[in-house]
Amino acid sequence: MSESRAEDVAAIRALLAASYRAWDAGDAYGMVADYTADATAIMTGSLRDSRDVIRQNMALGFDGPLKGSSTCNKQLSLRFLGRDGAIVVSESGILFAGETEVPDQRRVNATWVLEKRDGQWLIAAYHNSPVLAPAN
């Protein structure tokens, strides 16, 4: 991996970690601080079509059903699309107060699409889908 790619990997990991920390703090503004203005987030049953809409929805969640929650995230892969694009795949889930593990039914696989604008990595799109339970 070239030095610039190592720097890009570190910057992307730091960006995602900052977003996760903001979630854990219930900070909707901080959570979307590194999203592009035209970012999209697709989650089961919803399309959020801008950074402002994502922030508004997260603020409602943090004041309601997501109050006191945190996230558990494991990066599965990171690959670059040319010089200024990247895709991160992760396994994630929401931990509610008192939980130490994410129940299987709340685990999701997530795709993050990032782009580098003016030397800074930003989240351009996010999508998640439930992890299917293993067949018995």
Question: Explain this structure to me?
Answer:
The chain has helices at 3-24, 28-31, 51-63; strands at 35-43, 46-48, 70-80, 85-95, 108-117, 120-130. The protein is built from 3 helices and 6 strands, in the order ααββαββββ. It is of the alpha+beta class. Strands 2-1-6-5-4-3 form a 6-stranded mixed sheet.
Largest beta-sheet characterization: 6 strands, mixed
Report the principal-axis shape.
globular
**Radius of gyration from the alpha-carbon trace, in angstroms:** 15 Å
Number of strands: 6
- Structural class of the secondary elements? alpha+beta
Summed over residues and divided by their number, the pLDDT gives a mean of 94
User: What portion of residues is helical?
Assistant: 25-40%
Total helix count? 3
Report the uncertain regions.
Answer: none
Question: How are the strands ordered across the major sheet?
Answer: 2-1-6-5-4-3
Order of helices and strands: HHEEHEEEE
Q: Ends: how far apart?
A: 40 Å
Task: Please state roughly what percent of the residues sit in beta strands, choosing from under 5%, 5-15%, 15-25%, 25-35%, 35-45% or over 45%.
Answer: 35-45%
